[in-house]
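Exercise 7.
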Amino acid sequence: MEDTPAAAPSAPAASLSSETGASPGHGGKLRLDALSAFYGPKKAIDSVSLDFPAKTVTAIIGPSGCGKSTLIRCLNRMHEVTPRATVTGHAILDGEDLYEMDATLVRRRIGMVFQKPNPFPTMSVYDNVAAGLKLNGERNRARLDEAVIRSLKGAALWDEVKDNIHGPGVRLSGGQQQRLCIARALAVEPEVLLMDEPCSALDPIATAKIEQLIRTLKEKYTVIIVTHNMQQAARVAEFTAFLYLGKLIEFGPTGDMFERPKEKLTEEYITGRFG
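Solution. The predicted structure, written as tokens, is:
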């Protein structure tokens, strides 16, 4: 989790392209309105307003400590489980304020995949995927079987594990474990999938598989990915948001931002002058 701000120039006001929010052919799925997040008295996110278009991939980039991970943790109510962590402003999913909903329901609708693969160590592949469904009360074996197979196929993992589905999940490779965690998130059929640097611990081959999977997932889900890798953002994301010192500096179509950034700070970051 990112707590320490990076050292660089002061942050200007955000620049939002005309495509911000509902882009052509895509309605806004998730909207932030002056969202701020705090750890005790320390402000980690500073009044961010942003629309995430439906069924697209949005990348969140920025230097270490800029608030990327904190921002997405606010989107599925994980931020508030940290002692003395608070949120102000609004996060709106399909017209409903996430902070006026039951937190369990929010996490069912907005799934999350973390930086390091974290399969449940004592569970099989099958039970890892079924864990969320069982937690929500599903006990029908036929429905569980269908959901597990559907989710493993959705995570492009079924063909690799179908002959050992009751074997330990922790015996899979790192890349397979991350796809298992994606399958676990998909099993409860979320509407939005958050991914916090999902490839940072993976080798290039496993990374390529995850990136291909992300491009496929956007056909059904709104995907928001935190990444330090700007080449990865360019490969998988239609939209990119640049955060710095907790502020949204710029947001727009990824190609436009990388080729014609509107803010000097954005240009300095993507050309490697700091970060």
